[in-house]
Amino acid sequence: MTIIFSKKITPASVTKIKDSEGFIALITENFVKDERCLTECKIAQELNKPMYAIIKDKKAWNKIENQFHWRKILNFQEETPTTITKKIKQDLEFIRAIEHA
Fold it and tell me: Which of 5, 46, 79, 88 is most buried, most CB within 10 Å of its CB?
């Protein structure tokens, strides 16, 4: 899985999203305030990437929960990072299996 962090949206960052298996967003107040982050979400959605929201800030989540097609919504306060990673990995493996069936 590729992790992208950039200060602005560039053709290279769009290509990385396009080439990725899925898109993971760590939802914080800063994420919601950053137009670049929301643009990355829009790009991932337009490309039909499986989108996973990891909620760290519930108030921030409430601002964007219905804006995107989240495949899974995971809560950082309720699950360990290991469990979150495992659930996303299993879901991506499931998607791959369906695509190759």
Answer: 88
- Is 5 inside any structural domain? no
CA distance 16 to 89: 18
How far is residue 62's CA from residue 37's CA, in Å, rounded to a whole number? 16
The pLDDT value given to residue 27: 94
2 lies in a domain? no
In a domain, 6, yes or no: no
Indicate if the pLDDT at residue 4 is higher than 80. Answer: no
Residue-level pLDDT at 84: 96
Q: Which of 5, 92, 94 is nearest to 52 (CA)?
A: 92
Instruction: Please give the tally of structural domains in the chain.
Output: 1
What mean pLDDT is reported for the chain? 90
56: tokens are 């760290």
65's CB contacts (< 8 A; 6+ apart) are 53, 73
